[in-house]
Amino acid sequence: MEPSSKSKEELVRLMERHIASDGTNETIVPGLSFIRASRVSEPVYSVYEPSLCVVAQGVKEVWLDKTLYRYDPESYLAASVHLPITGQVVQASPEEPYLCLQLQFDMDRILEVIQASGRAERAKREPGRGMVVSRMNDSLRDAVLRLVRLLDSPHDIPVLAPSAIREILYRVLQGEQGAAIEPFALIGSHAQRIAKAIERINRDFAQPIRIEELAEEARMSSSSLYTYFKEVTAMSPIQYQKRLRLQEARRLLLAGASEAAAVAFQVGYESPSHFSREYSRLFGKPPIRDIRGWREALREVESAE
Q1: Is 185-239 in the same CATH topology as 3-181?
Q2: May I ask the CATH architecture of the domain 244-304?
Q3: pTM for this structure?
Q4: Could you give the count of Cα atoms lying within 13 Å of 35 in the half-sphere of its Cβ?
Q5: Of 38, 49, 92, 211, whose CB has the highest number of CB atoms within 10 Å?
Q6: Distance between CA 96 and CA 245 in Å, rounded?
Q7: What are the domain boundaries of the chain?
């Protein structure tokens, strides 16, 4: 058996040992979680945080607006900013469940690695898309394995986990898409200013926003902010805010929140009918029908089990 195959199998064994059930499983390593799914999923609407996603088994597809990203054990996904996405596990079974690890990171750590490796000049390039998929390589997979192995020796985690995470970030930045991630860590860069605008919208998504105000805070012209924002997120600032509002509304409704009209006001809509139209456009059905259908599907799954 080739070394890469052995590494893949070891990663699956380690993750299975530390996963309690389907869903997201937090670990004792700060920022590291495991995700398991024993069947193909329905589309799930969420917001990716800056993070690295490595699939040990199975396949997942992610839509960022109209762009499809597909990753499996031969690839990994990296998100440099908060991005509202639609994700779906497309290959999984009870015998071979989908297994993915997610390692959250902040740009301060990325900047430390950039400075230590002398890559600051390369990082000054203009920003690109805030999500990339790259081919996995043996160096990165081995670094990931070293981090996951620490779960079997918890007393080593405080000392060794930071250096293991640092190596993982270094390997990612060395890869073919490293140059797409680096600009977001440089203070004052266009990418870093867009990241700050994204943080502002995420924080205040229920409040009205003005492009001119965002641009002033980012110290950019309105046209530059609009252009770079769309390059990074595949959406305009208003489209991005709308997506956040609708995804939060759906989350509240699925959680059994109050009526659709009340949720509409809560996420920032002034007109329930306007909210219903935009909700239908994104999710395919008006709020009440969508939530009813989701709950019926969940009951069918539970009864089958």
Answers
A1: no
A2: Orthogonal Bundle (1.10)
A3: 0.88
A4: 18
A5: 92
A6: 35
A7: 3-181, 185-239, 244-304
Could you tell me where the DSSP H helices lie in the chain? 3-17, 107-116, 138-149, 157-174, 178-181, 190-203, 211-218, 222-233, 237-254, 260-266, 272-283, 287-304
- Name the residue type at position 288: I
Per-residue tokens: 167: 């190596």
What is the fold, at CATH topology level, of the domain defined by 3-181? Jelly Rolls (2.60.120)
**227 CB burial (10 A radius; 0-12, 13-18, 19+):** middle
Phi (first) and psi of residue 193, to 5 degrees: -70, -40
- From first to last of its 305 residues, the chain has per-residue pLDDT tens of 455 788 999 999 999 999 989 999 999 999 999 999 999 988 899 999 999 999 999 999 999 999 999 999 999 999 999 999 999 999 999 999 999 999 998 888 888 888 887 765 555 567 789 999 999 999 999 999 999 999 999 999 999 999 999 999 999 988 777 777 888 888 788 888 999 999 999 999 999 999 999 999 999 999 999 999 999 999 999 999 999 999 999 999 988 766 889 999 999 999 999 999 999 999 999 998 888 887 776 666 555 55
